[in-house]
Amino acid sequence: MSPSLRSLASLYVSSLLSQHAAAQIPQIHGSGTTNPSKCLWKIMRLFEERSRQPLRLTYRAIGSGNGQKEFLGADNGYAPHNDFGAGDIAMKKGDYDALTVTQGRGMLHVPFVIGAVNFFHSVSGFAVEDEVGLKLDSCTLAKIFKGEITNWNHADIVAQNPASSLPDESISVVRRLNGSSSTASITKFLRESCPDHWPEALVGKVIDWPSETVIVDGSNAMSENIRDIGGAIGYIDVGHGHAEALSEICLKNKDGSFLSSKEAHAVGGIMSPVGDALPSAADADFSAVDVLNEPGVNTFPIVLVSYLYVRKDLGYFRTGDERTLFKLFLRKLLDPEIIAECAEFGFTGVPENVRSMALAGIDALDASDGTPWIYETEADTLVGAGMGQNVISEKRRDYAEYARSQSQGSIELLQDHVFTTATAKSERPVDRVDAGGEARAVQAALVVSVVSMVVAFAAVIVVHLKLKSNENGNAAVGLASNHKNNETL
């Protein structure tokens, strides 16, 4: 065989082996709401890192409405485009009935976290660390988002913030593109709490906004525009808002208390509306669920339940082992210790009665044709069985995960040190002659600290990628070897 033909043959065989390897790797792919996306990404990554065999778990953050469309697959003969959908709103009755009654294909709502949406702003004169934030009630917010109040020193705003000096600054309203559960939630809240100023026609994922609004696509773009546009106000899940260090509105609740989501979360005011609001079975119609604007002195008024949308018939998965892996993934999303990984993003787990309801629905899913997956916890060592192929083990870690866990605490201490140093430098009186030198010292310290943080992150990423590359390479070599042995036999 000529060298050129030999090269072509090698490329062809390599291509076939790559396709074969991809087909053998268990995969789960979801899409939907952006709000708990970081939570899902983190838990998916832990599954991949703690599995003996290679796994591929992905999630596309495209909004609740689009996640529902891909799950329903109405444009695809009601075959789903994703393995699961996710959203912060229940399926509408019309969509639920179309799938379950007309098409005869059952589905589950699996509630897995509770979060909140709030309004964030960039009004000058307010800082994130302020003990008392900007206070607004729902009627004032309704007038702002309808374009009836256009300046931050408007009398209605001043009346609710008598101790604050409000600037003569124009208001820029930032709102999400069509299909956002956050839009559905805040418009429903405004309607329920201030019906005189927010009509029913302005409720939903898709509404007619004033032309002057700033349109953004996704939570990240919302955060960026609130931060970068002076005098802006927008709405976002509180996890994203806090992570971006945005200033949060103190929202007036049904009992007349002004409170931020952080204040409510500290006293259980995020979870409190959910326990008795959901159906008793996961395969029931959830379209009437409403946990907005519930009573309670410490209850936050815009609470969201995040769901996974799951088909009762898992036949669309590619293999039996993918079905059993998916069931384990669903169960671990309801494990209090696992879901605690999402606390940093502003989410909390569901109440015990909701958890039991969801687990019963998951247990009823048929995955009997696959090898069961086992989860080994840090506390319980499964000698022998823990080394099986279908095992996710908390004892199995790669070095990148370990390095991240070790470096996170150091990075947080470094950030605190930088903040403390900069604050101390800025508050300490300095001689006129040395003012320039002091300023340069502060700037130099900040630059060095930032560079150190960047280097630390880069090192972790490089180590992680290298280890993953070696892992995937070893997997491919193993598959190629098996293929060669099969040919020999």
What key attributes describe this structure?
nine-stranded mixed beta sheet, three-stranded mixed beta sheet, disordered C terminus, 44% helix, 489 residues, 15 helices
Topology diagram in text:
Elements: H1 3-24, E1 27-32, H2 37-50, E2 56-61, H3 64-72, E3 84-87, H4 93-102, E4 107-121, E5 135-136, H5 138-145, H6 155-160, E6 172-176, H7 181-193, E7 214-216, H8 219-228, E8 232-237, H9 238-243, E9 247-248, E10 250-252, E11 258-259, H10 261-266, E12 303-311, H11 320-332, H12 336-339, H13 352-363, E13 374-376, E14 391-393, H14 399-427, H15 435-488
Parallel strand pairs: 1-2, 1-3, 5-10, 6-7, 6-8, 13-14
Antiparallel strand pairs: 3-12, 4-8, 4-9, 4-12, 10-11
Helix pairs in contact: 1-15, 14-15
Largest sheet: 9 strands, mixed
Q: Structural class per helix/strand content?
A: alpha/beta
Using the CA coordinates, give the radius of gyration.
Answer: 26 Å
- Beta-strand portion reads 5-15%
Order of helices and strands: HEHEHEHEEHHEHEHEHEEEHEHHHEEHH
- The low-confidence parts are 421-442, 471-489
Number of strand elements: 14
Helical content band: 40-55%
General shape: globular
Overall pLDDT level: 84
Output the number of helix runs.
15
Give an overview of the whole structure:
It is built from 15 helices and 14 strands. The longest helix has 54 residues. The protein is of the alpha/beta class and 489 residues long. Helix 1 crosses helix 15 and helix 14 runs antiparallel to helix 15. Strand 6, helix 7 and strand 7 form a beta-alpha-beta unit.
